[in-house]
Amino acid sequence: MSEKILETEDLCKYYGSGENIVKAIDHTTMHIQRGEFTAVVGRSGSGKSTLLHMLGALDRPDSGRVLIEGKDVFSLKDEQLAIFRRRKIGFIFQNFNLIPSLNVWENIVLPIGLDKKKANKERVLDLAQRIGIQDRLEALPNTLSGGQQQRVAIARALAAKPAIILADEPTGSLDSGTELEVISLLKTCVNEYGQTLVMITHDETIAQMADRVLEIEDGKVVSR
Predict the structure, then answer these.
(1) Using CA atoms, how far apart are residues 148 and 141, in angstroms rounded to an integer?
(2) Helix and strand tally (H, E) in the chain?
(3) Measured between alpha carbons, how far is 109 from 64 in angstroms, rounded to an integer?
(4) Residue 84: which H helix or E strand, with range?
């Protein structure tokens, strides 16, 4: 029996007040199993990104809890939370968030260095090879195509071996051919490294590649 790695309990996040209140996340209880690829779908403004930010402990809820490996993450002080997040979660953002002054290799190993650890050179090289950027390791981000930058962002998220990968529309700026290639690659890497993947997507084709699809509507999450 697989274990829950990520859970929410009665999670709420509201914006505004009175008649203008927006219930971005409204009393949501859900769980994600270890090793599962879960796609989160929903219309624009349905609360997908808000949910992902709270799952990744980037944003605090108004009420309710987020549990990672059984630990209530928002019970941690800010500094402890930052360390916990860095060790447990890899993020892939739609706009890549690469550091322009660092080359590809330096961008990939940056989270490992922030944790005062030494990168496993063989593992990073293997990852770069698998992701198809092994010949661009010394290049700066602005010399890369959108697809290559996305691959660097994926390698960075995977390199530190976090238990959970959270991806927010990670292929939003790619053409459809590159998009499917990147998702297949991400899925393969996550499977091989035993990681858990939660991905926001508006693309039904990508959602169909997931083990499970959660739909979010009016701040509430339902299985599909």
Answers:
(1) 9
(2) 7, 10
(3) 34
(4) helix 78-88
Q: How far apart are CA 223 and CA 74, in angstroms?
A: 25
Where do the domains of the chain lie?
4-223
Kindly indicate whether the domain formed by 4-223 is annotated with CATH number 3.40.50.300. Answer: yes
Name which of 208, 166, 215 is nearest 186 in CA terms: 166
State mean pLDDT over 161-166. Answer: 92
Please tell me the distance from the alpha carbon of residue 43 to that of residue 104, in angstroms, as a whole number. 34
Residue with tokens 């890369």: 144
Residue 79 amino acid letter: E
Tokens encoding 144: 């890369």
d(CA 89, CA 69) in angstroms, rounded, equals 12
Q: How many CB atoms lie within 10 A of CB 20?
A: 7
Mean pLDDT of 67-81: 94
pTM: 0.89
Tokens for 145, please give them: 């195509």
DSSP string covering 109-150: HHHHHHTT----HHHHHHHHHHHT-GGGTTS-GGGS-HHHHH
